[in-house]
Amino acid sequence: MKLRVVWVGKSRDPWVKEVTADYAGRIRRYAPLELCEARDEKGAEAEEMRRRECERLEKLIPPGATLVLLDERGEQMDSPGLAAYLGKQRDSGIGELVFVIGGAYGFSEEFRRRGRLLALSKLTFTHQMVRVFLLEQIYRAFTILNKEPYHH
Q1: Global pTM value
Q2: Assigned CATH for 2-145
Q3: Domain chopping of the chain, boundaries
Q4: Disulfide-capable partner of 101 in 7, 11, 30, 128 (CB 3.0 to 4.6 Å)?
């Protein structure tokens, strides 16, 4: 199973780039991983920004991929639950699992219906932080699946 993490907007802070690269390298020990950025929209109404950003995201998602959309209204899982989900997807033989982080105003309603909705927390985080938290949790999930001591 190949993993892809797609987000809206550039990673601006050097520390975010550094930590993102670190966790991406760790994840690649378990599965192929691709990180993709879609340009964020500026200067439009919220609904128009969502529509345009989702069009850009759509171009980065391969046909037939299984989608997990990071959304504040999504299901919350604990780390073992995410590990179980990743293991189930891997073992089912899907080709590609894509995690998508939307822009400041989230996803259009049409786009939201395309994938499973996952919330990392009830708390609100910056999009920069969500990238780091998501990659860390994916790495943690693989260590759980492989019975490694990272998660205790």
Answers
A1: 0.95
A2: 3.40.1280.10
A3: 2-145
A4: 7
